[in-house]
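INSTRUCTION: Work out how this chain folds

Fields: amino acid sequence; protein backbone structure tokens

Chain under study, with its fold:
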Amino acid sequence: LTTPAVLHYSSSGQKVSGPIPGGPTTQIDWSLNQARSFRTNLTASGPRPNPQGSYHYGMINVTRTIQLSSSAAQVNGKQRYAVNSVSYVEPDTPLKLADHFKIGGVFRLGSISDHPPGGKEYLDTSVMAANYRVFVEIVFENSEDIVQSWHLDGYNFWVVGMDGGQWRPDSRKGYNLRDAVSRCTAQVYPKSWTAVYLMLDNVGMWNVRSEYWARRYLGQQFYLRVYSPIESIRDEYPIPKNALLCGRASGHHTRPL
């Protein structure tokens, strides 16, 4: 049973202004139009005429496009959820420790592709390689009948577009490249897609996950490894000397700060 409701403060004597919105519906156009209407106020709290200064997300060349498609399937007789056909499984050693100490066999870069491969779902410790300070486009695709939300640790991104149906390169013509909202979580409506722009300016091993927690637990997540070959403390702080080590990293020693 679903119905609209009105919430107001107990001290408020005002009635609702205008007609009350209709109840839930299977049509998503209204929700898409509402989501696209959220914009950054470019006239507040910033110098004119360009509050973002010389760094504006709509004026940077995208050098990589990543399409992420969610799916559900039975894998080895058990219910699993996947991203680009890979259902994530936890390794015996935390990924950041394995990466820091260069421990082989814990994960492999490229274990998840940039685009949906279209094959059957399978299990793996999925890690996607990415270069430091690359400007990327990520497209979240939802072919299912539920609203999904996706979160990226360590970053904010600009939600530049969303629409129903299948994403195509010419969908970029409808992107908002002027006053999009900066967020770290984005919704993807049923049978729809959401596109974000992102500057990979934070070195580390970052989790990309479904915010539907049962799906995340059953594999709908992966890690984005943003790497700088310089390995400088300018780009990433060293591991604390009192860090807890476990798994295959137990016999290693941390370097002092």
